[in-house]
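wait is this the right file?? whatever heres the structure
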């Protein structure tokens, strides 16, 4: 397969994730869309790594996966705290953390 197909798929996945982040109000769905965007970036990094013939893109993709895993742990902890306080996982209820 040609690398352009992988880049096109990556752009499509990133666009779907971006629309999901902008449109949805549920915090769990927003995190899933952010993960979709990070996976699209990983696909792009691995594709360019394959095109250039080195491993730099794959190493960066590994670091992105580690950061994404940490982001999910912290994000779900915050969502759980907001849900326990407000009984809702809406993004609009996140202003609870201001006080």
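ok assuming it is, sequence goes like this
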């Amino acid at each position: 397969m040609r690398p352009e197909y992988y880049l096109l798929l990556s752009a499509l996945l990133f666009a779907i994730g971006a629309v999901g982040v902008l449109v949805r109000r549920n915090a769990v769905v927003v995190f899933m869309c952010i993960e979709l965007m990070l996976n699209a970036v990983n696909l792009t990094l691995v594709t360019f790594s394959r095109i250039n013939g080195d491993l730099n893109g794959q190493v960066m993709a590994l670091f992105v996966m580690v950061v994404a895993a940490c982001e999910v742990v912290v994000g779900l902890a915050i969502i759980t705290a907001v849900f326990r306080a407000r009984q809702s996982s809406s993004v609009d209820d996140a202003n609870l953390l201001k006080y």
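The chain is about 80% helix and 0% strand. so i think its the right one actually
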